[in-house]
Amino acid sequence: MAVAVRGGRGSGLGGFSLRSFFSYRIFVSAIFSLIFLATLSVLFSTNPSTPQDDSALPTTGNAYVHRTFLALKSDPLRTRLDLIHKQANDHITLVNAYAAYARKLKLEISRQLRMFDELAQNFSDISVKPTYRASLFESDGPVDEDVLKQFEKEVKDRVKIARLIIGEAKENYDNQLKIQKLKDTIFAVQESLTKAKKNGALASLIAARSVPKSLHCLAMRLMGEKISNPEKYMDEEPEPEFEDPNLYHYAIFSNNVIAVSVVVRSVVKNAVEPWKHVIHVVTDRMNVAAMKVWFKMRPIEGGAHLEIKAVEEYTFLNSSYVPVLRQLENSQKSDFENRAENATEDVQMKSKQFSMLSHLRFYLPEMYPKLHKILLLDDDVVVQKDLTGLWKIDLDGKVNGAVETCFGPFHRYSQYLNFAHPSIKERFNPKACAWAYGMNIFDLDAWKSEKSTDQYHHWQNKNEDETLWKSGMLPPGLVTFYSTTKSLDKSWHVLGLGYNPSISMDEINNAAVIHYSGNMKPWLDIALNQYKNLWTKYVDNDMEFVQMCNFGL
């Protein structure tokens, strides 16, 4: 009853108490929100382990190298914190953008409200003008035509203005117009995003394919060393181990001296019996001398055997035998005969992108005829464990042992080959799982039985006009070793360290080989810092030319 009596007292007092209560709650909520945001700001802006602001460090010279070195030794949790911090900052930016848009809408609505008030007042002012009121509204006599015309003119002028203002304001209240404007905005943003992605991909590709000055410097200094001391770097007689099929043989095809040195060093350091391992390095004529000087100055340890040759030494690799060489020659010859102004673009692009080193993988039995098995390694991998177990795997008569990369609908044959072409559609399954280059164990005896090189030539000849697949080395591998590839356990080969920042460290640590596939190679400035130290620990920093060429590793 007491409650009823109190509630029944004047409605004005009850309304005032209710409003005061809600105002108090809103005030308290606002205070707590501000405290929470301030706490978040402190948490995200505080760096307990770094006494100085990184942004204050210079970005060139020794300080840059020092900062890069510190970044490589950074705690993985620091990277995680940076990602969380970035996510928070991104959402702050998003909220501020919406707030700015809301303020803009508020200002726009306030402006329209003032305009409507002024417009209504203008209509009212016409009626109360003394001239019009006396002659048109309060007079009982005949209407003055001149005054009426003047009144009509002023009303029409204000009606015209009113229609313009209302037409402009309708955009804010017409749902269809708002939907269309939103669609236009989304389309424009998507266009900008697509353009930004293309520009980013192009910039990343340029950064990945450009040769850093440090690599140029290293090659030049190695060549200078050979020229200065030719007697120290005379070619030696081939070792009998190079053709011994009872040993463990590796093939590396590259013109990147420091990358090859890392692969070789990681293989040998993790081998249980390094003296049983033979590494065959093939490079181009321009870099073969530099490669030999490096390994003469820094011999591999543990008694492992190293053979270095130039691709030009394999004389059977000529245009009469190799389809891609013949196709390139035909394109250049056709361009020379036609002399069309724009005909050189495709040929020049092919010439720049083409490297016979990439195609050597299809000629392994002819390059190493006395071997039974060989392990192909790319120059952007790091070996973390002894790999002799790969030679013990039963490939079930298959040619190629590789790790498959497909998951769900991704990395299937349909993504690499043109299944609109009848030759592809009839021969291959679009849902077949793709596999990866980078670490492949090849049974050369099975290769010869399956005539895999002939298969490669067949498909490469059919793809002269690039209607079966576009550029790249994986598509010809997929068609050549279709149905002759044995899937290996994924722990043998973990990919993506050159583009994927989300690979777990457990997966990386358990891998026998880690692969910096992607554009962010570990010897480039654009490398992912959280993975870079896994590569740099195998760099021979005691090599004097590495220090002189300022690699900053």
Automatic annotation (TrEMBL):
EC number(s) from the headed UniProt entry: 2.4.1.-
Gene Ontology MF term list: polygalacturonate 4-alpha-galacturonosyltransferase activity
Domain of life: Eukaryota
Listed pathway(s): Glycan metabolism; pectin biosynthesis
Stored Pfam families: Glyco_transf_8
Signal peptide interval: none
Coiled coil region boundaries: 326-353
One cellular component (GO) term of this entry: Golgi membrane
Subcellular location: Golgi apparatus membrane
GO biological process: cell wall organization; pectin biosynthetic process
UniProt keyword GTP-binding present: no
Keywords: Cell wall biogenesis/degradation, Coiled coil, Glycoprotein, Glycosyltransferase, Golgi apparatus, Membrane, Signal-anchor, Transferase, Transmembrane, Transmembrane helix
Record field: transmembrane: 21-44
Top-tier EC class: transferase
Topological category with respect to the lipid bilayer: Single-pass type II membrane protein
Gene3D superfamilies in the record: Spore Coat Polysaccharide Biosynthesis Protein SpsA, Chain A
PANTHER family, A to Z: GALACTURONOSYLTRANSFERASE 4-RELATED (PTHR32116), GALACTURONOSYLTRANSFERASE 9-RELATED (PTHR32116:SF61)
Protein name per UniProt: Hexosyltransferase
Species lineage: Eukaryota, Viridiplantae, Streptophyta, Embryophyta, Tracheophyta
